Amino acid sequence: MSSHLLPAIPNMSLGAPGVHSLPSKLHQASIHGFQGIELFIEDLNSLAETSFSGNHLAAAHHVRNLCDKLNLTIICLQPFLFYEGLLDRTQHDHLLNTKLTHWFKISRILGTDLIQVPSNFLPADPETGELKTSGDMDLIISDLQKIADIGAAQDPPFRFVYEAISWGNHVYNWEDSYRIVEEVNRPNFGLCLDTFHILARVYADPLSPTFITSTAKQDLQACLASLRRIDPRRIYYIQVVDGERLNSALDETHPFYVKGRPCRMSWSRNARLFPFEEERGAFMPVLEVVKAILDAGFEGWVSLELFHRDLARKDDTVPAEYAARGIESLRELGRRLSDLNVRSAAETGVVQHRL
C-alpha cells in the first residue's frame, strides 16, 4: 500500500484469545507486512492471566516491548464497551471513574493515545426485555462529550474513536455516528468507518434468503454519495472487511442463531471475511465503499477487523494463515483501486488514488 494508506490488523483477526497467544499473533502480523495493530483488551487480559499472574500493566509493558521490536504501531486499544446512554448512571460513573482510568494507564504503556468506543449494544434485561440504554441523543452526545473532555485533560491527552455497530441499540448506521461526532464537537473525538457495519445496514440482510435487501441498489448509491462528502479530518481510521453469504437466512433454524442476539451480531461473529474472498462467499461491494471514503480525502490506517467461527480452531497455524489471507486482501484492494484509477485517468486525465 502507499505511504498514505497504512496496513493494520486487530489481533483478534488472527486467532481467538486463550486459543492462540497474543505474541504469536503479533509476530505473524509483522512477518506478513502489517504495520499497525488494533489491540483488543480481551487478548491483553488473557495474556495477563496466563503469563503475568493477572497483572495487566506488566502484560501491557511486555506487549509494548514486543511491538517495538517487531516495528508494529499500536494504533488503538478497544473496545470500551457499553458506555454512552446508560440508564444506570451509577454504572456510567463507574466506567468513567474506574475503568477509564485503568484504560488510560494501559494505553499509556502501550504507546497509543486512541481508545475506541463502539455504539452501545448492551443487551436488554433478560427478564423484562427492557433496554438498559436510552435513545435520547442529547444524553448520548453529553456522555461522549464527557469522555472526550476527560481524555483531553490528561497529560498528554487521549483521543476517542466512535464506531456505529450495525446492531447497536440506538446508533447503528454510520450517518448517525458521523452526526454524533459532529455534535460532540471535540478535537479529540473522531470516527471509525467499518465497511462491514456500513454494508450490513444499507446492502446486506442476513434474514433474507438472498442476503441482500430489496432496496440495496438505491440505498448503496445514496450511502456512497454521502460518504464522498464526509470531512476526512473526522475519520481516525477505517476498517475494511466483507461478510459471507450463507446458504440460508440466519433465522431461528440456522446453526448460528442465538436466542436474544441480533441476527447481524450472530452473522458478524461467525462469518466475516477479508475483502475480495469471493471463493469463500464474500459478496458485498466493499471496494465501492472504500473508494468513496478515499474520494472524500481519507488517508491513514486501513485495518482488517475480522471475526469468524474458524478463528477458535485449536491449530497453531491459524495466526499465520489469517495474516497471509489478510495482507493478500489488502494487496488485492490496491490492485482493484489501481484498475479504477486507470479507468478514471482515461476518462478525466486524473489519477485520484494510488496504492
Automatic annotation (TrEMBL):
InterPro entries: IolE/XylAMocC-like, Xyl_isomerase-like_sf, Xyl_isomerase-like_TIM-brl. Transmembrane segments: none annotated. Residues 28-332 form the Xylose isomerase-like TIM barrel domain. Gene3D superfamilies: Divalent-metal-dependent TIM barrel enzymes (3.20.20.150). It comes from the Eukaryota. This is 3-dehydroshikimate dehydratase. It comes from Aspergillus sclerotialis. The lineage of its organism: Eukaryota, Fungi, Dikarya, Ascomycota, Pezizomycotina.
